[in-house]
Amino acid sequence: MKVELFYTPGCKKCADARDDLKAAAEQTIPGIIWRELNALDELNYAVELGVATLPALAIDGELVFSSLPTCRQLRRALTERRRGEHGR
Amino acid sequence: MRPVLDGPSSVQLTIGKIASLAHVSADTLRYYERERLIKPAAKSTGGYRLYERDALRRIRFIKQAQECGFNLAEIRSLLALRASNAACCRDVRHVALEKKLQLEAKIKAMKAMSGALTRLIRECSTDSGSLDDCPILTALERSNGVKRRSR
Hints:
heterodimer; A: 88 residues; alpha+beta; Glutaredoxin; 23% strand; B: 151 residues; mainly alpha; three-stranded antiparallel beta sheet; 3 strands
């Protein structure tokens, strides 16, 4: 599984939340891939995923949060996705 | 005589004069005022709006931002950022980047629409066929899951 955080360079809000969110993702799904993408450098990809506001967070190439989630929200989203994958 | 633009900020310009300098209409300025984007510095004894020279910069800012795709509410926020001591350049960049993302998404959607129309136009090779045989109308109806009825 892969989490992608789209951010604006210099965004203090993103920097403050990043470590906690990353830790929450890694605790929920060991071995999860965590990527941080500067929306300016990854504009086409961000548009492809439908990112219109920043920061935003995608899971496995799907825009799931159009603003920063809480750690709890992220854990829940990851757990549900894993359950969905196992149920297939 | 020095041009009005080089004068002190307190120089007061009528709505007609400032509209002409900014290349907008007086109606546009009244509209901006209703939208709380600009405000005359004073009114003359005859009740005419009078603007300081700085208003010209503000009007040009608004026009330029409109050309970049910002709506008036967003421009109001940008003007507030511009006037805020707490804001800095990265705050403005954040707003601009979000707007660019939205514009790029619109461009992408419009390109897809244009591509769909190109395909439909290519399918329509006859000039004088009946409307019942028109591939463009048929394709548009088919995409809604509606079968075309004969007239």
